[in-house]
Specification:
Length: 98
């Protein structure tokens, strides 16, 4: 994740050669839940830009968050809808398996 953060902060287009091995490992994990590295980067950008408005500052369960995603996602966050759906699906899978 440091590689993705560095790439975003310095507005780089690609990862360095040293980072590519770690990105390949991340890609393998993400593939199992149908999330691309690019979508993961988008999700990290969303987290970095704060999601207080989306969550309205309160704890919510996964069902409530998914419902809000379908009904109340602000227009400026619509580009994050698919990666968020995949993230919530992955969280659900990982929660069930633990």
């Amino acid at each position: 994740m440091i590689a993705i953060t560095r790439k975003r902060q310095y507005k780089k287009v690609n990862f360095t050669q040293d980072e590519k091995d770690n990105i390949l490992k991340l890609e393998t994990v993400l593939f199992s839940v149908n999330i691309s590295v690019e979508e993961f980067e988008l999700l990290m950008a969303l987290e970095a830009n704060s999601n207080c408005e989306f969550y309205a500052g309160k704890d919510q369960n996964l069902e409530e968050v998914i419902q809000q995603l379908d009904t109340a996602l602000p227009s400026e966050l619509q580009g994050f809808k698919t990666p968020l759906r995949r993230l919530f699906y992955a969280l659900d899978i990982w929660e069930l398996s633990s």
